[in-house]
Design brief:
498 residues, alpha/beta, Rossmann fold, five-stranded parallel β-sheet
């Protein structure tokens, strides 16, 4: 029989919520993130999982965490999420390239890994609202470094009982990422660029969540906030499923035996994706190392090396913009765990981060991070890796995947660890075509992004995805830009029109 999993805040051990309540709320009132109060084990072996398709594996994972959902409710959500929106029946195929497996998570509607969770979150959210007799309209507030925004907009557009506002750093995302967002249709959607970086957008959203007076005003008008960022447990848990699925595919194909350990190398910014891999290990998947791959904004690399988290550094705009982050929100969930689930200690460390911009963990806490290894790749190494792999194999990867691939290569060389390695591939190369073409051709590209998209297709024989074709000539529907301290006012204006 499944254990009853409840959720508590990383900053307050007192309040316990059911999964559906935590999904609706998104972020705890005290600013903390919801974490499971226990980690059940998978009820079927990897050998049994190997006989299942993606939807069946997803159910085996999610039923462990979403214990107040009925089987019928959860299967309904899964069935409607992982359907023809994905361009491959396998949903998350593994591709073997040059000695490494690539877990391709970009086959969904918006050609980035966020589709894996944001295809299901609207169904989890609306089911949760019904279960808890929520009468208010749920307003999703989300900050994006490029990919979450479009995937959330696509998921929540015209969903009954919901509205969504997405904030992104103006000038800090790729041309395709921006075009995907600002052309989004839907009566209940709003996209706002901010003068600032992703950390500013994320901090602004968290401030709105913790503004009790503003929330009370909106409650009177029939609105309540929730989040589609990976701070929402309803976003994070579905990501656990693809790590379990990847392991089961390797068993199915006879590449490993049931029980063999594997490594995952994950391009990491906000720490949600790699944390999902850690949760997969906690429920029974034999993971040896989680290799945390950073770009030149290497705050996480420095943290795993030294035990000091310090965001007081230059913010660098790179060719992997979804990882241009200096405040990795989901790391708080790991900090809570390695502190011995000490909410007071976790709250003090997070308070130090928001105050001085840094904190340091104890040597005992650092010892509990040994499942993780940090690595980083320079801009030059990223572009070299894209070129090298294409030259050798014909396989094209995007810049974020290339960060992980370059880090993985260095890790294997330096550690002599020959454990089977899976690089988590987070986006289609067509989402970052300019950078990919500059890597392949070795020169600065001056042409329009869509000209480069056609050239990449001609060069590689890869068809241009629908997600790109449909925005080529689409009308710009959102052109609002604000200062970072004007975000609350933009939310207010949007809600007045809903």
């Amino acid at each position: 029989m499944s254990l009853d999993v409840r959720y508590r805040s990383t900053r307050d051990n007192g309040k316990i919520l059911k999964a559906s309540q935590a999904i609706i709320q998104g972020l705890s009132e005290d600013g903390g993130l919801f974490v499971p109060d226990l980690f059940p084990r998978l009820e079927v072996s990897p050998s049994e999982l190997a006989k299942m398709d993606y939807k069946e594996v997803a159910y085996e994972v999610m039923k462990l965490f979403f214990t107040d959902f009925t089987e019928e409710e959860l299967k309904y959500c899964i069935e409607h999420a992982y359907d023809s929106k994905f361009d491959t029946e396998e949903i998350a195929p593994l591709t073997y390239v040059d000695g490494t497996y690539y877990l391709e998570l970009f086959h969904g509607k918006t050609i980035a890994f966020k589709d894996m969770a944001l295809s299901i979150l609207p169904y989890l959210m609306t089911t949760s609202a019904k279960k808890n007799d929520v009468r208010e309209k749920i307003i999703i507030l989300t900050a994006t470094s490029g990919d979450t925004g479009k995937a959330a907009l696509a998921g929540f557009a015209d969903v009954e009982g919901c509205g969504i506002v997405v904030f992104y750093p103006k000038g800090g995302v790729s041309k395709v990422q921006e075009r995907q967002m600002v052309t989004q249709k839907g009566k209940n959607v709003k996209v706002v660029g901010i003068h600032g970086n992703f950390d500013d957008a994320q901090t602004g959203v968290k401030k709105i969540f913790s503004d009790e007076e503003f929330k009370a005003q909106l409650k009177e008008k029939g609105f309540r906030f929730s989040s589609a960022n990976s701070i929402n447990i309803g976003r994070l848990i579905p990501q656990v499923a693809y790590y379990v699925f990847a392991y089961s595919r390797l068993v199915k194909e006879g590449k490993i035996s049931d029980g063999d350990e594997i490594n995952f190398t994950v391009p990491t910014g906000n720490f949600g994706n790699i944390l999902a891999g850690y949760y997969a290990k906690k429920i029974g998947i034999p993971v040896h190392k989680l290799i945390c791959a950073s770009n030149e904004n290497k705050v996480l690399f420095d943290f795993f090396e030294s035990g000091v988290y310090d965001r007081n550094r230059e913010f660098i705009l790179t060719t992997s913009p979804s990882m241009d982050i200096l405040i990795s929100s989901n790391l708080e969930r790991l900090i809570y765990e390695i502190s011995g689930e000490d909410a007071d200690k976790c709250r003090a460390l997070m308070s130090s981060l928001s105050g001085s911009g840094r904190y340091e963990i104890s040597s005992e806490m650092k010892e509990k991070c040994k499942d993780f290894v940090g690595g980083f790749a320079s801009e030059e190494e990223v572009l070299e890796r894209i070129h090298e792999i294409y030259d050798r194999t014909g396989y094209v990867m995007d810049t974020h995947t290339a960060v992980a691939s370059a880090v993985s290569k260095k890790y294997v060389k330096n550690s002599n660890d020959d454990t089977t390695n899976v690089v988590v591939s987070t986006a289609s190369p067509y989402k970052f075509t300019r950078s990919v073409m500059e890597a392949l051709e070795g020169k600065k590209e001056e042409e329009d992004d869509f000209v480069l998209i056609d050239r990449l297709s001609e060069m590689t024989g890869m068809p241009v995805p629908n997600a790109v074709e449909e925005i080529r000539n689409a009308e710009i529907l959102h052109d609002t830009v604000c200062e970072k301290d004007g975000m609350k006012e933009e939310v207010r204006k949007f809600l007045e029109k809903l």
